[in-house]
Design goal:
352 residues; alpha/beta; OB fold (Dihydrolipoamide Acetyltransferase, E2P); Rossmann fold; 6-stranded parallel beta sheet; 5-stranded mixed beta barrel
Length: 352
Amino acid sequence: MIRWRKGEVVRIRREWPGAMELDVALPEGQIRALAYPPLVGSPEVGDDVLLNTTALAMGLGTGGYAMVVAYPNRLPEDPAGPGHLVKARYTPMQATVLGADEQDSPYHEVLREADSVEGMPVVVADLHSALTPILCGMDRSVRAVYVMLDGGALPAWFSMACAQLRELGWLAGVVTVGQAFGGDVEAVTTHTGLLAAKHVLNADVAIVTQGPGNLGTGTKWGFSGVSAGEAVNAAAVLRGRPVAALRVSEGDLRERHIGVSHHSLTAYGRVALAPAQVPVPELPGAFGERVRDQAELLAVRHELVSVPVDGLHEALLECPVRMSTMGRGLEEDLAYFLTSAAAGRHALTLLD
């Protein structure tokens, strides 16, 4: 189940908050590895390093790194401070964090009684790659908080986009929920994550997606994005205003993802039991008509809202954060990014 290797750090390639990319020499050659200093300490050139090479060996696109498990000759000091919330529970890398909703938290009293996000728009999307274009559709004065689900990467540090968006000020913070960890705020569930976004980080808008990477099996129900439907339910029960961002593609080679993805039709059409607003982008031509026809399948429960996309391509082009989805860049699957940006544009109208 795990492919283990032992090597030597030969180069620090680059780093961003919470993560460092390395070159590691193995007997069979040099490979790329990723270390999370908050978990394992900071690597140095010459360190012996123990690696989990499973994702690398499988050729996973998003997770195509060897992961640093430990520097066996130089272990980090024991952590200090409060926090008894355990994430990645009962795995060899389980970590203790301070949850915003736990008793030792300074926010415990606020969240103990909190029961509503007070009409806050909550934009829900299937893939992590939707986060940046959703923000492109918004005004920079909006205080947006990302609530990261645990369907993809568990450490928020894996996302270079999150680090860049935080540095740019496009994101006011990151809340990691479920088994995910490493956000500015930790929470136990999607519900307390949304409450923390509103009452701890003072969000105007929350954006909910899984972390980078996702799991799909080509079956109707076997994909991690079903959590998007569950997030719609959470937003509604907390008296938020759920906005269901469609996953749309013109560049995917798989028929089940062309136009409106079957992931969106299942998550919003079957899993989401509460009504949401579904922004439908006004895309041109026959493809745009296909998207509108497919979206009509969701009108039984949800409110479809037609959203113009004029100016959104320019906003996406001007974004300083690199965008890609399933290995495709902006121009290779423009419809995907325009649809996500349209969801952000619509969320703005709910703040008036």
